[in-house]
Amino acid sequence: MKISLTIFLLLFLICSNSFPQSGGIIPTPEQVISGNGEFTFSKSVKIIAPATFSNSAKLFAGSVADLTGFSPVVTEKGNPSGNITLLADRNINNPESYELKISSSAIEIRAGSEAGIFYGLQSVRQLLITSGSHPIRSQVIKDTPCFRWRGVMLDVSRTFLPINLVKKYIDLFAKYKLNVLHLHLTDDQGWRIEIKHYPLLTEVGSKFDPKFNTMGGYYSQDEIRDLVSFASQRFITIVPEIELPGHVCAALTAYPSLSCSGISPGIHTFFEGPSVHREIFCAGKPEVYEFVFNVLDELAGLFPSEYIHIGGDEAPKDEWKKCSSCQNTMKENGLHNEEELQSYFVKKIGEHLRSKHKILIGWDEIYDGGKLKGDEILMFWRGWKADSVAQAARKGFRIIATPTTHCYFDYNYDNIDTRKIFSYYPVPRNEIPETAGNYIGVQANFWSHIDRSEFNIDKQLFPRIFGLAEAAWTTPANRNWEEFRSAANLNSEYLKSKHVNVYPDKSLH
Ligand code: ACM
Ligand code: ZN
After folding, report:
1. Has this prediction a pTM greater than 0.85?
2. In Å, how far are 25, 49, 109, 195, 298 from 20, measured between CA atoms?
3. Active-site choice (99, 108, 143, 187)
4. Tens digit of each residue's pLDDT (9 = 90 or more) over 251-282
5. Which of 381, 389, 410 to mutate to test the pocket of ligand 1 (most atoms within 8 A of CB)?
6. Quick one: which ligand is closest to 259's CA?
7. Which helix (H) or strand (E) holds 102?
């Protein structure tokens, strides 16, 4: 009796396959139930989609041509049999969730919004990759992301990245269901976005001293609008970052009066200057606040994102200690030290952003001075400050986790390999349910001070992006390393065939 029950359970599991499995999809879906039979992509396969989903349908049709040998026709009406049908389903509440049914006779994707449809289509595309373009097996997938922020930060300041390269990465990230591109647009080494109010930011601030023989560059506002539209078609939100009060030598070289001393620091390449420059924006001069608000207002008009990142990391306070404007501001506002002055500065910026219906994000240092309101979002990067960030989450701050321990993709693979980021889960084990929801996402950061060429950037990002996608989308209970490893290797081979320089990460061997 015992044996037959065990056999029955085994048979049930084999037939229904309802235990967690990637099914050849990165990131692993929430639920995959295997069926019998398989769907063949014959040349007559069409995509039947309402006009509201035609953008995703067309992008999918173009992106599978190399896998199927043809690009499916997109049409509004047709017989579901033999085809892929995209359906709006109001019962699916999360805009990123989807249900995908694959049978031997048809494929159907349902979602409450186009983002879910887009993700369902990416799952079909990945099944084509991992099946080697063979028929794909019948199955029912119900999928929803674990985190709503699934991001990558690209530093386009230390190395200016041409717009087409940024588009290449946006397109690749979206295929693994990442949904945020955080663009680090300004730093000591360059100001990379046109601001109409302050033309010298790009005329002066986007260029290295010619003796460094390094390319500068910046994005015009038209290019930014084009990039935002390209990303939004792929359900990626671009979140701009303007660094302050530190990491601002490019801006100070253009407008030296914004610093405490008024002296231009010049723009050095990363390895020609200190890694953290001591010149920062003055927090006492009214014109600095006016400058910051004007810049942020232009950003708010360019980026539909509800978030704007204002940096806040690594701001040495030596200049503030010596500056009468900064010291007076501290006295007038009852601030006890320069950390509190930074907090005061950031809080005022947050209030300004709120008046523009935007939410402030800053690196986790913005929490240190203790003066914030609580609706600002902390980007946790200092791996050694996990306790302080956990305390902030308990107080109600929302956290995006990008710690140096797991998420720094400029580090080499000996420190952070794909398996390490695959295993990452940002919510501390002892977190209480009431505040666990304050951890809103996971992001990889790629700083471009070392790796400058497309060839090098590719290898720093891939295959780790697969692990990031899993960490951000899939609950730990559903992650299975062996299944993921197999899908990651197949995706690596596919990307290599498309000339992406995927690194031979030992953890995947
Ligand atoms: C950082 O890595 N300085 C945010
Ligand atoms: Zn000052």
Report:
1. yes
2. 12, 30, 20, 49, 46
3. 187
4. 999 999 999 999 999 998 888 888 899 999 99
5. 381
6. 2
7. strand 98-102
